[in-house]
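Whether sequence alone determines local backbone shape is best considered at the level of individual chains. When preparing material for the folding task, we compiled for one chain both its residues and its backbone structure tokens. The sequence in question and its structure tokens are set out directly beneath this paragraph.
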Amino acid sequence: MYDYIIGQVTRITPEYVVLEQSGIGYAIITPNPFAFRVNEEKQRVFVHMHVREDAQQLYGFKTIEERELFKKLIQVSGIGPKSALSILASGNPSHVITAIEMEDEKYLVKFPGVGKKTARQMILDLKGKLGSLLEHVELPSAEDELPLFGVNPYQHELEEAMLALHALGYSEKELEKIKPLLSEKEDLQTTENYMKYALKLLLTTK
């Protein structure tokens, strides 16, 4: 129905962003809302309309590749939109695709809502079908790496990141386990950086 919407981001919440276009504010659910910024610049968001009996929801992504991987994931039995978002929130679609191609169930089961049965189903359904996406996925550059030293982290941004991760399906127990590590980490500064680093911790320590 929609391919993308170009507009201004006017609000950011832990679960969605509001994109205003032609006087209409679209609530768009996205893997990492804090990857967006509230400003006057026009932003292009690639969208997918998900229709259920009780709701019609817009899901949005910064790249076509993220959206197409999301659409592939929700076709797998046992993977709903929320689970697909938590997988994409890691910010590394290439890692997910590689795990599927390499049949790395251990990596896949670290995401909320993905057990061994679902991980196996992902591999059965998607292996060999994601090559075109992998060719276009951008790997993080050195500039994208989180800084190691600097000023103390900001508590407000840390709390926003915790709320966003909880909305993605991570439990209070999981988040409380990594929160001290996040608090000690220097120079993260933004909610987006807190989320990226938290996801790295969750995927390596779970």
